[in-house]
Design goal:
single chain; mainly alpha; Serine Threonine Protein Phosphatase 5, Tetratricopeptide repeat; 19 helices; elongated; TPR repeat; TPR-like_helical_dom_sf; Tetratricopeptide repeat protein
Length: about 325
């Protein structure tokens, strides 16, 4: 590549003249191109797909809708629009139906489009039609038996049906196709943790290695350590999380929980809960656990104040309400 670039550069010099040669312009990023050419359908599609990668589904939807309005026959524009529509957290049943219609259009035009086949299968899974979901997923695998996302969808369907073994098998097959597939490690880790299998820890460790800055992966790992009484490892992982994101409060709360319920160090527990509440006053579990600490000390009035704080931020937090009733009866 370097040799070809050098030859090309010499050609430019010889054609333009050694003294008057223009410096090669920097290639514009897709964000810059999007600002410069806001009505270019190919750029709208590229920008929209970039927004999908960034999980910014609202912007992706805007790009997809605009590209689709401009070129309704364009399967890439339709696919982007439908994909963004169906991935939004606040999608409605009518959104799913609309997306399904667009995916069908794409599949009809391009029957071997594995991404569209799996996307179409996803809409049926969302509607509870697992038979059609499996049909289109298997169609994608007939086109490409190593298509990772098809196995992920099968795993999710099996999990919804309560078939953990087939779910685990599907997620593991997805990893076999793509050893760096972060989401599959998280899903398998969560399944094994729910089954009380410490193998979950290794899956979460791998997830943190794939995405070292992903707080979700670190939190799952730390909580798994805590869940299996590997407390020093849990505490160290929570500390690492706070270095990565000092404003993320769950690590502070969990360190308080460990101090309170596992190490019987109430002073340290109070410290961590107060640190939690300084950053997030609505953390009702921290208020409640402070109440428990003061109730244990026999300081009922102080305990009730903390329980009331929990109820202030969440009136439906019944365990604090029950604690107040319990203490009120013993006065």
């Amino acid at each position: 590549m370097r040799i070809l670039f050098f030859i090309g550069f010499l050609v430019v010099l010889s054609s333009c003249g050694g003294n008057g040669a223009k410096k090669p312009q920097k290639e514009l990023s897709i964000d810059q191109l999007f600002k410069k050419y806001p009505d270019s359908v190919p750029i709208l599609i590229k920008h929209g797909n970039l927004m999908l990668e960034r999980y910014d589904y609202d912007k992706a939807l805007q790009d997809g809708a605009k590209a689709y309005r401009m070129q309704q026959w364009n399967t890439e524009a339709r696919f982007l629009y439908a994909n963004a529509l169906n991935n939004r957290a606040d999608r409605t049943p009518s959104d799913v139906m609309a997306a399904q219609s667009h995916f069908k259009f794409v599949v009809k035009k391009d029957p071997k489009n594995t991404a569209a086949l799996v996307a179409l299968a996803t809409t049926y899974a969302q509607q509870g039609d697992n038979e059609k979901a499996f049909y289109y997923t298997n169609e994608a695998l007939r086109v490409n038996k190593k298509y990772r996302d098809a196995y992920i969808l099968k795993g999710s369907i099996y999990l919804s049906l309560g078939n953990r073994e087939l779910a685990k098998s599907s997620y593991q097959t997805a990893i076999d196709q793509d050893p760096d597939f972060f989401a599959a490690y998280i899903k398998l880790g969560l399944i094994y943790e729910e089954e009380r299998n410490p193998l979950c820890i290794q899956y979460f460790i791998t997830a943190t290695q794939i995405r070292p800055n992903n707080i979700e992966a670190y939190y799952n790992l730390a909580y798994a350590y805590q869940d299996f009484d590997k407390l020093p490892e849990a505490q160290q992982t929570y500390r690492e999380m706070l270095k990565k994101d000092p404003n993320f409060t769950p690590p502070l709360f969990q360190m308080g929980w460990i101090k309170q319920f596992k190490q019987n160090d109430m002073d340290s527990a109070v410290y961590f809960y107060n640190e939690t509440l300084q950053k997030e006053p609505r953390y009702v579990e921290a208020w409640h656990n402070l109440g428990l600490i003061y109730e244990t000390k026999g300081e009922k009035y102080q305990a009730i104040q903390y329980y009331r704080k929990a109820l202030k931020y969440n009136p439906d937090f019944t365990i604090s309400g029950d604690a107040i009733k319990r203490l009120s009866k013993t006065k």
